[in-house]
Design a protein that fits this description.
The protein contains 14 helices and 13 strands. It is an alpha/beta fold. Keywords: Glycosidase, Hydrolase.
């Protein structure tokens, strides 16, 4: 099946706001990166200047033949101080949506991708008593952006990773050995925030399709104890699948598998010595995508699935192509098995800042960080012309 034969199938690439825009001075991550003796190894700084070069980025997507583009809105730009709404930033993101539509691209907008306004974080972040109301206020003021041509919104990127932040220092490779149990209070709060945002979107923009994208490993049960396996996966991602009940779709963001075995009486991740690893320290296992999709579908039932992220951190673009081809084959296999998958977004459009490090290169194009020139890799043209 040629993807072009299904005009409703979302076929695109993705970028995160803080990772690509640069100089998000009012965000909590900017403060974290720039404080004395920061635990963040490398700062985002100018990032890849997508705040000013978004037109170049969208031109890459459209010229490759892709039809969809996932990008984020920075809350800290929209509301840099508590209650102060930047009309200039609203106008900026409105122009981005309009620019995507002008190029024939369907924008999928992410409202929260790890970063928070510093004023919100300093007051307790997601655990502050008014967190849901403040997040809803932010969603309310985005009306001019959302009414400029947005059909789908991802409220929160990887809520399970957000809920891990309180229990681990996030940085390059921090999660490569497996996910710790997310903080229970943050899990509850982030689910409430998602439902609160969905309420606003349904009320104000009923035509927009709402979901969120969960970080989903292909957890493989090697425990010989279904009960222990379920106890392992439930807080790490399945509780977030269940929270999508009532949504229009759920996003699956998958890069690797996690083999789960019993160790000293407890279910724990296991990896064979000597397996091939990506630049992120994850096992190089492209067929994880299909396995993750099947596991999500087993929980959410008929809820449509969108692959909102999938890719590989590698300096070898030929490996990127072969990895993506095999991942897509596993996705089509899941579709053939009856799973309703409605789209695929490759992570990432460009090499960008990966939460503390510039080393992992996921991009379909590289960026000269002195001139900010975008340099397409063969994988970009390959993905744009891909057919099943």
């Amino acid at each position: 099946m040629n993807t072009r034969a299904r005009p409703d199938f979302l076929w695109g690439a993705a970028l995160g706001a803080h990772q690509s825009e640069g100089n998000n001075l009012a965000s909590d991550w900017w403060v974290r990166e720039n404080e004395p003796q920061s635990v963040v190894a490398e700062r985002a700084g100018d990032a890849i200047d997508s705040y000013h070069r978004w037109r170049d980025d969208m031109d890459l997507v459209a010229s490759a033949g892709l039809t969809d583009y996932r990008f984020g809105i920075e809350w800290s730009r929209v509301e840099p101080a508590d209650g102060h709404i930047s009309l200039a930033s609203i106008g900026h993101y409105q122009r981005m949506v309009q620019g995507a539509v002008k190029r024939g691209l369907r924008p999928l907008i992410t409202l929260h991708h790890f970063t928070l306004p510093q004023w919100f974080a300093a007051g307790g972040g997601w655990l502050r008593p008014d967190a849901v109301e403040r997040f809803q206020r932010y969603v309310e003021v985005l009306a001019p952006v959302l009414e400029s041509g947005v059909d789908r919104v991802e409220t929160i990127n990887e809520p399970n990773i957000v809920s891990i932040f309180p229990v681990i220092s996030i940085g390059n490779g921090a999660l490569s050995a497996g996910y710790p149990i997310p903080d229970a209070a943050t899990t509850e709060a982030i689910i409430a925030a998602h439902h609160g945002a969905r309420e606003v979107l349904r009320r104000n923009h009923p035509r927009i399709l709402v979901g969120w994208g969960v970080s989903v490993q292909d957890f493989q049960d090697e425990t010989n104890s279904r009960e222990d396996f379920e106890a392992y996966v439930e807080p790490r991602d399945q509780v977030f699948f269940r929270a999508a009940a009532g949504d229009d779709w759920i996003g699956t963001q998958t890069y690797t598998r996690g083999r789960i075995r019993m160790h000293e009486g407890v279910a724990a991740p296991f990896r064979e010595p000597g397996v091939s690893l990506t630049q992120s320290g994850w096992e190089d296992y492209p067929r994880a995508l299909g396995g993750a999709i099947l596991r999500v579908a087993s929980i959410v039932g008929d809820l449509p699935i969108i692959v909102t992220e999938n890719g590989i951190a590698t300096a070898d673009d030929a490996r990127r192509i072969s990895f993506t081809r095999e991942a897509l084959e596993s996705m089509w296999s899941a579709i053939d098995d009856g799973v309703d998958v409605q789209g695929y977004f490759h992570w990432s459009l460009l090499d960008n800042w990966e939460w503390g490090s510039w080393r992992p290169t996921f991009g379909l194009a590289s960026v000269d960080r002195q001139t900010f020139q975008r340099i397409p890799k063969p994988s970009l043209a390959w993905l744009g012309s891909y057919s099943r």
